[in-house]
Amino acid sequence: MRGKTGAVSVVRLAAATFGFLVLLMPGVARAEVPVTVRTLQLSIGLAVGGGDDDDLWGAGLAGGVGYTFPKPVYLGIAIDAFPHEKRSSSFGEVLGQVGYDFATGADPQLVVRPTIGMGVGHVAQGSKTGPVLGPGLTLMLAASVILFSAEVRYDLVYLSPHWHQGGVASFGIGLAF
User: Fold this and answer.
1) Strand 107-123 relative to strand 39-51: parallel, antiparallel, unpaired?
2) Is this prediction's pTM over 0.85?
3) Less packed terminus of the chain by CB within 10 Å, N or C?
4) How far apart are CA 27 and CA 13, in angstroms?
5) How far apart are CA 128 and CA 133, in angstroms?
C-alpha cells in the first residue's frame, strides 16, 4: 500500500469500525458495568498474522498489560513477536492501546473492547524500524480473576520505503486484579 491508497484504506477501516460499533450499541447493557473496570489486566497468548508481506507476519506470541478506568476507558500496551525460524527475518511490534470496554447483554463477565493502537514495528533482517497503526477489537470472558481473550487487529506498518498491511488474530489467557 503506497501514497493516497493507504490514507483511503485507513478511512474505510475507521468507517467500517464505527459502523460496527453503531450496530453493536443497541445490544449493550447500559446499566451493567464491565467486570474489567478498575482492574489491571495481564495476558499472554498465541498470535497469527498475514498480509501483503509474508516475511512480516506468521505464527507468533502475543502479550499485553493494561488498566481499565472507571469510565471504562482502557489504556494498555500490546506486544507481538513473529519469529521466523525458517527465514532470516523476524518481526516484532509494540503498541500503546486506547480502548473502551462494553459489557454485553446482561452479563458483565463478557466484555467487548474496540481499540486503537499506535507504536513501533521492527524487522530484524536489515534492521528496519517504523511506525505501526493498529485498530482492533477484543472479546473477553472473565471467570473470577482469569481472563480469556480473542483479539483481531488490522495493522498498517511503515518500513521504509513501503507501507505494509496485514491482519493479526491473537488468543490469550490472563489475569485481572
Assistant:
1) unpaired
2) no
3) C
4) 22
5) 16
- Tens digits of per-residue pLDDT, 131-158? 999 999 999 999 989 999 999 999 999 9
Q: What are residue 12's DSSP bridge partners?
A: none
Q: What single letter denotes the amino acid at residue 23? A: L
Tally of residues, the chain: 177
The topology under which CATH files domain 4-176 is Porin (2.40.160)
Residue located via cell numbers 459502523: 19
Secondary structure (H, E, C), the chain = CCCHHHHHHHHHHHHHHHHHHHHHHHHECCCCCCCCCCEEEEEEEEEEEEECCCCCCCEEEEEEEEEECCCCEEEEEEEEEECCCCCCCCEEEEEEEEEECEEECCEEEEEEEEEEEEEEEEECCCCEEEEEEEEEEEEEEEECCEEEEEEEEEEEEEECCEEEEEEEEEEEEEEEC
Nearest to 101 by CA among 125, 70, 126: 70
Q: Can you tell me the distance from the alpha carbon of 97 to that of 106, in angstroms, rounded to the nearest whole number? A: 27
